[in-house]
Amino acid sequence: MMSQMSNRHQIWTNLMIRTIDVLLFDDVNLLDVSGPVQAFGAAVIDARSQYTMRYVSPNGQPVRAACGLRIVADGQLSTRSNSDDLLIPGGKGVDAILKHASVQEVIQDRAAREGHGRLISVCSGALILAAAGVLDGRPATTHWSRSAETRQYENVLWDLDLISTSEERIFTSAGVTTGIDLALAIIRADCGPKVALAAARELVVQLRRTGGQSQYAIHLAGQFTRDDTLTRLIEQVVSQPQLDWSLNALSQAAGMNPRTLSRHFQRDLQESPAQFVERIRVDHARGLLFENLPFKQVAADSGFGDLQRMRRAFQRRFGVHVSEYLSSFG
């Protein structure tokens, strides 16, 4: 085992530095750019950065981000670039970029190249990949507010409830801070968990918020309920979904009778306590599935108790069995 770990360390420390072209355009979401590139910039081995960023715009000219900040590009987006990866952020300016034939040409050229070069989208940047046709037949996600636009690309396997997706060399993330999650996952794959953890600590973020978790963060609804008792109860369910959360157990934890508790859930969350618990458990299970854990362990750790109950819950939520869900989005 020590020999194997030593070999892995040797592989990671001998990595070639990867270069990433970062697409800039007017009205780009600045956090879609700064979040991932800051994560990549924090990936260091033996005092050497493992990624080099080059900022490009469609015409090589400066751009103005949606927040008003003016950004100077290093050069023009081009098929002649020899960088390893292309990162495509989102923002209001995506709508104009969708009409850029030259941008689509570059994306198609990169997708057709041999090797290990990646196409990485953040937020609505996935729509740019979809317009270029490189997401056809692939799982993908984007910001939930772009749901209507995704219907224009029927050949893409959209799941807007995911934080991120990856298949072969094409990666998408839900948007804004999830771009950091995706960058950390890529750093982990490229450089190993130690480097990824150091980068996460530098940014003061969680290392592994898995791609299977919900971008809607439904449990955050608990922060906006009308009473603190329900908020505390929701936080308990979210943090310990494996416990017994029957209606009686929930009522006892909240200090309410079952009828009153059910009325509070309907008032604040528009669902019954049982529906809420199942939703939390399904979301937890999705995250664990992306860790490649055995199905039975996922079912137990998520609070379903047995695999059959988890299968039925996935069928209710997504209309597919667990294995089908994982094959489409795993």
UniProtKB/TrEMBL annotation:
InterPro entries: Class_I_gatase-like, DJ-1/PfpI, Homeodomain-like_sf, HTH_AraC, INH-QAR. The keyword Transcription applies. GO terms for molecular function: DNA-binding transcription factor activity; sequence-specific DNA binding. Residues 228-328 form the HTH araC/xylS-type domain. It comes from Parasedimentitalea huanghaiensis. Signal peptide: none annotated. The keyword Chaperone does not apply. Keywords: Transcription, Transcription regulation. CDD domains: GATase1_AraC_1. This is Helix-turn-helix domain-containing protein.
